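ingest -> fold -> write
write: protein_1
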Amino acid sequence: MGARKRDSDRRIGRRALLVGGAAAAVGSAFLARDELSELYWRLPGVRKPRVEGAVDYRGARWVSASEANFRWADRPDDYGIDMIVVHVTQGGLESAVKAFQDPGHQAAAHYIVGKDGRVTQMIRELDVAYHAGNRGYNERSVGIEHEGFVDRPQDFTDVMYEASARLAAGICRRYGIPVDREHIVGHVEVPGTDHTDPGEHWDWDRYMKLVAAAHTATA
């Protein structure tokens, strides 16, 4: 499951600093009213308006993670997204959902894919999830959890692989992420982490072929 080390950086994004600095330097009189109306939320202490219950992946079930387990952001404007990190929950789907809703858990991924292919989104892609155990990777990636245990290959079902591949392909298309193993990685490959997921039973060759096929099909 996602790293338990809390991403302690709570500062505003780079673009918020730039906008705030610009407004202070030139004064609001020099900024067009429509520009201010669009950029006001980038100023310190202001959150971009959200549509409650909105999902980034059509068909996903929305269940909100605890605000303690992610950081509000506006990716890819403030942090570019160029990576997907693959995880395994080390438990059942609903236990993972409950963990990500727990503020004391201090970690959560954007998505969970169940053995039955059901996709649950818990954090918007524009926000920074605490899933990789590495601040830089958190800021640049989308985290996908998979229901099951790393030592149980039977947990990685056909419908799970297929659903996750469609999800990953959509993410790659949205942000122009190359469909390769440099940009779609396992949690174990994140520098500084002590996790081993998705483990030796995760079929990377199969998964990447499915992602590539889904990416081509949606194109």
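write: protein_2
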Amino acid sequence: METKAIRVFLFALLLIAAPFLQVARGESDSEVDTSETVEESSDLGIVGEDVQDFGDGNFSPAPGVDTICVFPKNSAKSVTAGEETELLVGLKNDGESSLNVIAIKASVHLPFDHNLLVQNLTAQAFNNGSVPASAQATFPYIFAVSKFLQPGTFDLVGTVYYEIDQQPYQSTFYNGTIEVVEAGAFLSIESVFLVTLGCALLVLLGLWIHGQIQHLSKKTKRAPKVEVGTRATDASMDEWLQGTAYTQSLNKSSKKKK
């Protein structure tokens, strides 16, 4: 009886624990699927040597495919020479077939003439870069301009290469200006020049004001006027008025005072 009771108890315990075992098994299976998905997504961004050969062609954009470019955390589109810069390329596929992103590449040009190439940037290839129909996806592109590039404004031309039904296409996702700044410099050459010019103008203005003040002070410090006494004039007047009624009245008044 005791053995039979123990068997019944163990059987009931297994029935109670069965749902929990299935849940645990399901969770472990989901973890395996997630890890496999992460491994597949980590294949994106592998650079291949054959990308340059693919990028030498000149293909047209596919109909129904739109692109957009965003500089994350860098709205000023400032690029430090010699350091990596990241941008995000968004693709929207409104076509009937899925597309496969092959690579992204870019180049730097002078702003006034795109025929004057400054630098070809590193191409970046993608594995498993598939965008289904009526879907959109974002791909990162990391590049670095030469550390010897002079600071200033340049034009960046970015192109994404993709295939639809084994037919190659390309779309320009960015064609605009970027500001290249010197690495580790708080001020650019133009800023230093403007600050120096402003200081020089302030010094010249101060010297001019100082000169004007000195000139005005010299005018105020003129030699004092020597007042001429009235004795000489009185003597000449007496000689001229001698024998007149005026001298006679003066003599009479002097006698009266005595």
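write: annotation protein_2
Residues 52 and 123 are 7 Å apart (CA to CA).
The longest helix spans residues 2-41.
pipeline exit 0
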